[in-house]
Amino acid sequence: MTLKTFGKRFAGVSIAAIAMISTVSAADLNALVWCDHSDPALLQPFEEANGIKVNVKEFEGTGAGLAIIDQSQPGDWDVMVIDSIDVRRGVERGLFEPLPEDQLPIGDLFPAVKMDDYTMADGKRYGITEKFGYNTIGFNKSKVDVGDMQSLASMTDEKYKGRIAIYDYYLPVIGLAAMSIGKKTAELTEADLPAIKEVLLKMKANAKAVTDVVASQTALATGEVDILVGGGEWVTAGIAKENPDLDFSIPKEGAVLWSQSLAMFKDSQNKDMALKFIQYIMSPEGQARLATSSCYWGMPASTKAALDDEQKKILRFDEQPDFLKRAQGYPAPSEDLDKKMQDVWTEMIQAQ
Amino acid sequence: MSAASHTRTGWASVTPALLWTLVFFAVPFLAMAIASVYPKGGGGFSLSNYIQFFTNPAYWRALTNSLEVTLLVTVISILLAYPFAWILAFIVPERWQRLALMLAVLPFWTSYVVRSYSWLLVLAEKGVINGALTGSGLLSDPVQLANTRTATVIGFVHFFVMLLTLTIYANLKQLSPNYRKAAADLGASPLQTFIHVILPLTLPGIMVGAFLTFVLAIGDYITPQILDGNNELLMPQLIMMQIGRRGDFASASALSIILMAVVTIAYLASARWLKIERA
Predict the structure, then answer these.
(1) pTM of the entire structure?
(2) In a designed cystine with A295, which of A35, A146, A186, A279 is the match (CB 3.0 to 4.6 A)?
(3) CB contact under 8 A, A7 and B233
């Protein structure tokens, strides 16, 4: 064993030891998920229908999710929620099982969110988009000029100084900064970073805070800020009933499309049930429950989601074809560029 | 009992502790140290993660931010905790001291995360403090308290004042009243007695509390993450950032080793000082 592998193996052995004393049963379905899948309103119907318990482990960020897998035993996990752009990271690690397209409602998906470039490899589907939305401009329409929210340039306008929060995730906000200077998120290179950094620094100078998911919702809901750069339906829709003034726009420069997928583990001991779970999530009922999860709302990937009229209105369901036309995907940088983007983000936060 | 028997008994006594330290500290630490010199993306042994820290001002600044915040928190907490402990030890009647101590540690009873979010709401633009200041006419417009370093310091101090109060109180209670009486007999004023007798004798309690405050504050992720609004990064936040999306455990390990080195230096400094005071 080399020194390099020592650390990794030690971590694996430690977690395995802990796993031995855990109460997770192989008869259960073990899901590595984002917080929207922990909502009992989403899980209970599936559990009752199949007489099975769904054990969920939440994580944030693909890196953290992959680290949990690294430290687990093969077969510990059955399904995983992952950024659509990162499905191939899992495929390259040999983690995922191809999904049977003929048993999934692929045809019901909004075409723009199928994202085959990321969810398929070697002609096989490894991930299916289940939910999507936009990192764009979220705002309180009673506090801002709604016309200003149609341009990303307003985010660096002195007029909104101290009234802005920036969502703390470098990829989508760097994407927005790039779009504000006319660059395409899919074509970003290291040479673009200085200009992007300049935009980010101007945004930071205007911002009151750089906030995570919960803090973003809190800041908008309490009126601490009036605008969230990188916000969207995921931050405004869930609290729209309490505060109908919260809304989002897709500015003229466009917005960044976020998308999450479901994947099945190659080493799952419970593949039939894992597939059933994916089918349930992709069913009209599952899609509606996932879209309106108590953790955060988002657009269901399926056009046939059983949302009521009020929910569709809040999510602006009927406007999606136009929104999707104007949206660009997450930047999907190489390992090296990803690191440089994160460093630019770090410099932005540390700037005074 | 023979010398050999003594030795066996000694080893039997310390072996569990040694094994515990070996398995849960030494080995993980070694694993982290090794991970830190094999950067993500391959390429073999390299010190690039350490070089990055010392050459990238944004990274380096996380450490200076951490030190500034932690030292400020430690000093403020001592200044607030000492008189509080003094009042508890010497002014509050003996029969009420237990209740007073229990009240003093009430903040420990609530969740750390809940407590931080509570402070966020208290300090918010429309929170209790700004509401009182603007409502009473003292301020025409609210001031920004939430999402600032001040908010982080307030959140930390709220917690650590209690910790320091306990360590200083314990130290004060151990002092014989005869020290004060002897100083007074020799003509020392109360202030002179405090400066030349009580304070030096309670320095170990202060240092223990200060060191615990320093260690816990400099490694804390939750409080600055919630209260500072990410307007600047402290070391734990920078470490977490390496893991979030990219899963760069090598870089996170290097930063953690650096943070541990700082804590070790703080320990050596305070341990040496304590030793001198006790001599």
Answers:
(1) 0.85
(2) A35
(3) no
How distant is the alpha carbon of residue A279 from its chain centre?
Answer: 20
Q: Using one digit for the tens of pLDDT, what is the confidence trace for A24-72?
A: 454 799 999 999 999 999 999 999 999 999 999 999 889 889 999 999 9
Integer CA distances (angstroms), B88 to A246, A329, B171, in order: 50, 61, 12
Instruction: Write the single-letter amino acid at A304.
Output: K
Domains of chain A: 21-132+258-327 (3.40.190.10), 134-257+329-350 (3.40.190.10)
User: In sequence order, which residues have a C-beta less than 8 Å from that of residue B224 and are 6 or more positions away?
Assistant: B69, B152, B234, B236, B237
Please give the single-letter amino acid code of residue A230.
Answer: G
- Tell me the residue range of the domain where B182 lies: 63-278
Query: What is the pLDDT at residue B108?
Result: 79
The ipTM estimated for the assembled molecules is 0.85
Query: Which residues of B lie closer than 8 Å to A, measured between beta carbons?
Result: 27-28, 30-32, 34-35, 38, 40-41, 44, 56-59, 61-62, 65, 117, 120-121, 124-126, 144, 146-147, 225-226, 229-233, 238, 241, 243-249, 253
Quick one: pLDDT band at residue B1, thresholds 50, 70, 90?
Answer: low
B110 lies in a domain?
Answer: yes
- pLDDT band at A15, cuts 50/70/90? very low
Structural domain includes residue B11: no
How high is the mean pLDDT of chain B? 91
Instruction: Please tell me the total count of domains within chain B.
Output: 1
> Which residues have C-beta within 8 Å of that of residue A228, sequence separation ≥ 6?
A137, A138, A139, A164, A165, A166, A167, A211, A216, A219, A220, A235
Tokens 């420990």 identify what position?
B108
On whether residue B88 sits in a domain, the answer given is: yes
Residue B179: which residues within 8 A CB-CB, separation 6 or more? B197, B198, B201
Which of A10, A64, A162 shows the shortest C-beta gap to B27? A10
CATH number at residue B206: 1.10.3720.10
